[in-house]
Design brief:
The chain is mainly α. It is built from eleven helices and five strands, in the order ββαααβαααββααααα. Helices cover about 75% and strands about 5% of the residues. The strands form two sheets. A three-stranded mixed β-sheet has the order 3-2-5. The longest helix has about 35 residues.
Length: about 300
């Protein structure tokens, strides 16, 4: 029986997708392409938000934060996964595993809080348009962004600390990275008290933000339906719809993974669901905002036009 803090010299074995060797090469190529598109798309969003003056607004300030967050989020797992798929060494040190678990949880938790902040920004823009610039003052925007990062890292510190107290039976992780549900499954003693505390933390970081977001968009929908202009309604629904789609993709997969009981958690299914919210969602975010947002598309074409002059 081991625990996280028992020794720093031991190593975990990451099973990854070795149970499906015929898929490993396909996954390696696919994930490499998706990772490249993720880096390119999110970097483009960040660059456009800095270059184009029309995008110097609270909405795009938070969007650039989300893009930077997605870059870090996917990078916390993809390099290890590619090594696991292509190389022969499928092990990771105890220290490396703790670090990956902490960083991954911190970034994921930060995104949960940041999406609430973005929903509040859209609520202020649609439901309080005359006071929007006063409400979303640059100082408040910076404070909300900082609070998102601090809240995310604090949640990760709590959950990782609780995780390190759990006794583990074995060092074989049936996953492609160090994720919380896999370690809970590996616990070899009754850890009901610890799991209950961790469950409360997950509810706070997942269910509470999701409820606040749905409430915000309920008020937004009511306000938009009162708008007489068809073009105005279309613009409001287009902007808010892209955000709501991002929220649905992220929270849907995260809630499925982190809020189901330990007894019903399937490690095999969990690996493929994790692929979705760690790799696919960060790639889709810039595509969703770019394809559904005229401001971003306009800024992109403006930059491309300058490049061809």
């Amino acid at each position: 029986m081991d625990s996280f803090n028992a020794t720093l010299e031991g190593r975990f074995f990451l099973v990854g997708f070795s149970d499906w060797p015929q898929l490993e090469l396909i996954l390696f190529v696919f994930i490499s392409i998706v990772y490249f598109l993720t880096i390119f798309g999110n970097t483009t969003i960040i660059a456009l938000s800095r270059i184009d003056l029309r995008l110097h607004t609270p909405m795009y300030f938070f969007l650039s934060n989300l893009s930077f967050l997605d870059l870090c989020f996917t990078t916390s797992t993809v390099p290890q996964l590619l090594i696991n798929l292509y190389g022969h060494d499928r092990t990771i040190s105890y220290g490396g595993c703790v670090a990956q678990l902490f960083i991954y949880l911190a970034l994921g938790s930060t995104e949960c809080v940041l999406l609430v902040v973005m929903a509040f920004d859209r609520y202020a823009a649609v439901c309080r348009p005359l006071h929007y610039t006063t409400i979303m003052h640059p100082i408040l925007c910076q404070a909300l962004a900082i609070a998102s990062w601090v809240g995310g890292f604090l949640n990760s510190l709590i959950q990782t600390g609780l995780m390190m107290t759990m006794p583990l039976c074995g060092r074989r992780l049936n996953h492609f990275f160090c994720e919380m549900p896999v370690f809970v499954k590996l616990a070899c003693q009754d850890t009901g008290g610890t799991e209950a505390k961790m469950f409360v933390a997950r509810v706070i970081i997942l269910v509470l933000p999701a409820t606040l977001i749905l409430g915000s968009y309920g008020h937004i929908a009511k306000a938009v339906l009162k708008v007489k202009s068809t073009a105005g309604r279309r613009k409001a629904f287009g902007t808010c719809g892209s955000h709501l789609l991002v929220v649905s993709l992220f929270y849907g997969s995260a809630i499925y993974t982190y809020l189901q009981p330990k007894s019903s958690y399937s490690e095999s299914k969990g690996k493929f669901v994790a692929l979705f919210y760690t790799i696919i969602t960060p790639m889709l975010n810039p595509l969703i905002y770019t394809l559904r947002n005229k401001d971003v598309k306009g800024a992109l074409w403006k930059v491309l036009g300058r490049g061809t002059d």
